[in-house]
Amino acid sequence: MEKVQVSLRNEFSSDNYSGICPEAWAAMAAANEGYAASYGDDNWTSRACQCIRDLFETDCEVFFVFTGTAANSLALASLCHSYHSIICHETSHVETDECGASEFFSNGTKVLLVPGPDGKVDLESVEHTVKRRSDIHYPKPRALSVTQCTELGTVYSVDELREVGDLAKRLQLHVHMDGSRFANAVAALNVRPRELTWQAGVDVLCFGGAKNGLAVGEAVVFFNRELAKEFDYRCKQAGQLASKMRYLSAPWVGLLESGAWIRNAAHANRCARRLAERLQTVAGIKLMFPCQANSVFIEMSERMLSALRGKGWHFYTFIGSGGARFMCSWETTDADIDQLVLDIQELARQEASPGF
Ligand SMILES: *Cc1c(COP(=O)(O)O)cnc(C)c1O
After folding, report:
1. Which of 257, 288, 313 is the last residue of a domain?
2. pLDDT score at 213
């Protein structure tokens, strides 16, 4: 029998399957003119840092690293000693997708997990985790890590973040924000970046670039400058100090000065909303979480999942809570969405008909 060739459709697998957006690409090309000082002592890097200070309307300390895992784990390590602990949500990337990097770079700081609906930390559980023990045998809680947008595609509101910040202050915890999709949260809430960060009590933000349209790179933004002390050494030791730093930093200038960062995020969010709205009308398809940013999680039978794979679609089911995750990016098109919806509709019709 002849094997049927299906072309692989992986545009919804993750927002890091997308390419480099034109604004970042152009800045990279512009940075490629002639010589520039290495290790961050160049004009592109100082300009990128200034862009980030302007964006957050405060005098923050900024560092550029290669990956989100490096950003999160080095930032968290700078908030803690090895005998401390970090509290985060049980589905957080720090816990489930970083291969223990936070524990490694902090020389053993323990990660303590809390539950909470829709990927957001439950504040009573945070308080209980801090207060249940005060003896010397328990790893002393020192940092609270939240993810904005969450791993389940939901968004903490400004008020929710203020509550997180207030509780952290009362419990003497530093606040770390994994913002690999921070731009999507700003676009979703239509607020100023400062309202979601330092004004709510966030000490350090890992501001995602890759999923927003860069080739590579995340910015570690310390609003609490004290905590940034010697962070440059931490980056260097971890192999995160780029010698040709301009190629990490210039694309940020391209993203931020052009406004592409927020346009890209808003576009991705709009695409996800459109996908969610259309899938909701398909019989047998259930959204697992409210679609608030650029992802759509759907619950489908095993049979439908494998039939959808059979049609060539690639997607993940291990991220978040076991459903099929579809991510939109700056590059997603209406045609992509229409094709996916069409295929799912067809499978749903087959599933409903006898003999499938
Ligand atoms: C993608 C992602 C990161 C960054 O991961 P790296 O692969 O290390 O760059 C961090 N946090 C969350 C929630 C993510 O989705």
Report:
1. 257
2. 98
- Residue 230 above 70 pLDDT? yes
Whole domain around residue 304: which residue ranges?
Answer: 261-352
Residue 340 above 60 pLDDT?
yes
Residue 4 in this model has a pLDDT that exceeds 70: no
CA 246 to chain centre: 23
Residue of the nearest CA to atom 10 in ligand 1? 68
Burial class (CB in 10 A: 0-12, 13-18, 19+), 258: middle
Mark whether 265 and 341 lie in a shared domain: yes
Q: Would you say the CB of residue 95 lies under 6 angstroms from ligand 1?
A: no
Predicted pLDDT of residue 1: 54
Q: Which of 14, 97, 154 to mutate to test the pocket of ligand 1 (most atoms within 8 A of CB)?
A: 97
Q: How high is the pLDDT of residue 301?
A: 87
Residue 244: name the closest of 22, 34, 104 by CA: 34
The pLDDT mean for the chain works out to 95
* Alpha carbon distance 124, 128 (integer Å): 6
Co-location of 194 and 298 in the same domain? no
Q: Does 320 score more than 80 pLDDT? A: no
- For residue 34, the SS3 value is coil
Q: Is the CB of 213 under 6 A from ligand 1?
A: no
156 & 266 share domain: no
Count of domains for the chain: 2
Q: Are residues 236 and 266 both part of a single domain?
A: no
Q: Are the beta carbons of 145 and 86 closer than 8 angstroms?
A: yes
- Note the pTM of the prediction, 2 decimals: 0.97
Distance 189 CA to ligand 1 centre (A): 21
